[in-house]
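USER: Fancy drafting a protein?

ASSISTANT:
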Amino acid sequence: MNGQLQKVLIILNTCFWLTVSFALWQHSGGFPQQLVSTVIVLGVLSVLANGYFWAQFWWKRKSRRTPNNWLFLAFIGLSSLAQLYLLIFTRS
């Protein structure tokens, strides 16, 4: 995974955490609705992007895995765990 895709993944996961904060603390009232909607859509897209990231990360050989930065992997891992938890345990 090259640097540009890593940056996109960071941005999408940041939007996911902003979406969670909008839902939990309802801070989205003062922001323009178009901005809030865009952040929510990007946050939802991070679920798909994380799934793709982990699939290609685990299917590659260990010697060919490119993201070796532990902070990057920790952020993506925590975001993925939070997304998995929300997908499994929240009901509409």
DSSP finds three helices and no strands in the chain. Residues 41 and 59 are 28 Å apart (CA to CA). The mean pLDDT is 85.
